[in-house]
Specification:
By secondary structure, the chain is α/β, with parallel strands linked by helices. The protein has helices at 5-12, 52-56, 111-117, 128-138, 152-160, 168-172, 198-206, 220-225, 244-253, 264-272, 359-368, and strands spanning 18-22, 27-34, 39-46, 64-68, 72-73, 92-95, 97-98, 121-124, 142-147, 178-180, 187-193, 209-215, 230-233, 259-262, 277-293, 299-310, 321-326, 332-337, 342-345. It contains eleven helices and 19 strands. The strands form three sheets. A ten-stranded mixed sheet has the order 10-12-11-13-14-19-18-17-15-16, with helices on both faces. Strand 13, helix 9 and strand 14 (259-262) form a beta-alpha-beta unit. Helix 9 crosses helix 10 (264-272).
C-alpha cells in the first residue's frame, strides 16, 4: 500500500492529473480519461465483471458516478449495436485500470472516445477497493471528479452547493413517441419510457410484440387510445417519489389491461397500490445478485441497478403478493396482483430467463387472456 500521494506518483512515474473528492473531504487521486468535465454526482459501485458498455449506456445511472469493482475496464472497447440507449447520461466512471487498446473485432470505438463524445469524465488508477468499502460502510456519498490541483475546500463547497437532481426521468425519457415493429406480431405493447433500455424493446419484438415507446408523462387516455394488449413500465433513474405524475398514471392504468414493470416501474406499481419505498444503504448494482423465486425456492443470478426498495411491512392491504426476494438481504424483488393482471420485478428480466413462468412468459399469458 502507498502511504501518500507522492509515493504513488513516484512509483508510477507520472503525475496525477485528476481526483475524486467526497463530501467529507476524502480525496482519491488518479489519471483522467474520457471527458475533462467537472461533475458532482452520487457515487455508487457496480460489481459486474463484464458489461461496462451496458453500464455506461444505461439511463438508470443518470448523474451517478459509478465505481467498477472489477479491476480492468475498456479491454473490449465499445460496439455500436450493444448500446442500451440512444445516448448516455452517466455522471462519471471510476476504474482501477483502464485499457485503451481494445482487441475485440466488434469494437467501433474505445471506451474513452465514447465517454469524451458524451461528456462523461473518467478516472483510473485509484484504489477502487478502498472506495467501495467506504461506500458499503457509509452509504453512497456525493462526490466531485475534478482536476488534481483543485483545493479540497473548494471541492467540498461545490459538492455541498449541488443538490441531488429530482428531474432525472424527465431528462432521459423520449420526447416523442416511437415504434419498433416485428413480423407476424401477436400483441401490441406500449412501453412507458422512464429511461428504458433498448434490450427490453428487442426482447418484446422477439416474443412477437409490436412496441410503441411513449414519453413518461403521456396520459392514460392517450396510452389506452393506442389499444395495447399490454403496458410495460420501464426502469429509470432516481427516486420514484420524484415522479408523482407517474404514480397517478399507474393508478389510472391499473385493471384496464395487463401491466408489468421493471426497476423503477416496479417501484411505481408498489407506490400506486399503497406500498412505501425506502433507500438502501448502498443499493444493488451488478450482474451477480441472487434472487429466490418463492413459488419454487429456486435461485437465479440476475442483473440489477437500483438504490431504492419496496418495504415489506407496507404491502399489507395493497393486494400485492411478493413473488421474488433477494437472497442476500431479503428485500423485495418481485410483486404480483392477479386480479389486476399486474406484476413487476426489481431486477432486469431480459438478462436471464427465469424458470417457472418467467417474466415475459407471464406477460404473454396475461395478454393472451
Amino acid at each position: 500500500m502507498y502511504n501518500d500521494r507522492k509515493e504513488r506518483e513516484s512509483d508510477m512515474d507520472r503525475k496525477f492529473d485528476r481526483k475524486i473528492v467526497l463530501e467529507d473531504g476524502q480525496e482519491f487521486y488518479g489519471y483522467g480519461f474520457g471527458s475533462r468535465a467537472e461533475k458532482v454526482c452520487e457515487v455508487v459501485f457496480n460489481t459486474s465483471m463484464v458489461g461496462y458498455q451496458e453500464v455506461v449506456s444505461d439511463l438508470s445511472y443518470t448523474d451517478q458516478m459509478v465505481v467498477m469493482t472489477y479491476p480492468l475496464i475498456g479491454n473490449y472497447g465499445i460496439a455500436d449495436e450493444d448500446f442500451e440507449s440512444k445516448s448516455t447520461s452517466l455522471g462519471g466512471l471510476v476504474v482501477r485500470e483502464y485499457n485503451d487498446l481494445p482487441s475485440n473485432f466488434r469494437c467501433t470505438q474505445t471506451l474513452s472516445e465514447t465517454m469524451e463524445e458524451y461528456d462523461v469524465p473518467g478516472i483510473e488508477g485509484i484504489d477502487t477497493r478502498k472506495l467501495t468499502k467506504y461506500i458499503r460502510e457509509n452509504g453512497c456519498p456525493m462526490g466531485l471528479i475534478c482536476d488534481a490541483d483543485k483545493p479540497v475546500a473548494d471541492a467540498v463547497a461545490q459538492i455541498k452547493a449541488t443538490p441531488l437532481p429530482t428531474d432525472s426521468v424527465a431528462k432521459v425519457s423520449t420526447k416523442k413517441k416511437w415504434h419498433s415493429r416485428t413480423v407476424k406480431h401477436r400483441f401490441n405493447v406500449v412501453v412507458v419510457d422512464f429511461g428504458t433500455r433498448l434490450s427490453i424493446v428487442r426482447v418484446l419484438n422477439a416474443i412477437g410484440c409490436n412496441v410503441t415507446v411513449v414519453p413518461w408523462n403521456t396520459t392514460a387516455e392517450d396510452i389506452l387510445a393506442l389499444k395495447p394488449n399490454g403496458i410495460f413500465l420501464s426502469d429509470g433513474p432516481g427516486n420514484p417519489t420524484d415522479v408523482p405524475d407517474a404514480v397517478e398514471l399507474v393508478k389510472q392504468l391499473r385493471g384496464k389491461c395487463p401491466v408489468c414493470g421493471e426497476g423503477l416501474g416496479h417501484q411505481l406499481i408498489a407506490i400506486a397500490c399503497g406500498a412505501k419505498i425506502e433507500k438502501l444503504p448502498f443499493g444493488h448494482r451488478g450482474s451477480n445478485h441472487p434472487v429466490r423465486i418463492l413459488s419454487t425456492g429456486k435461485i437465479e443470478i440476475v442483473s440489477q441497478n437500483h438504490g431504492y426498495t419496496v418495504t415489506k411491512d407496507s404491502l399489507a392491504g395493497t393486494g400485492l403478493v411478493i413473488t421474488h426476494e433477494n437472497v442476500l438481504d431479503g428485500t423485495v424483488e418481485g410483486l404480483e396482483n392477479e386480479d389486476y393482471k399486474m406484476f413487476s420485478t426489481q431486477y432486469h428480466p431480459e438478462e436471464k430467463a427465469i424458470h417457472d413462468k418467467g417474466f415475459f412468459d407471464r406477460f404473454i399469458e396475461y395478454m393472451s387472456k
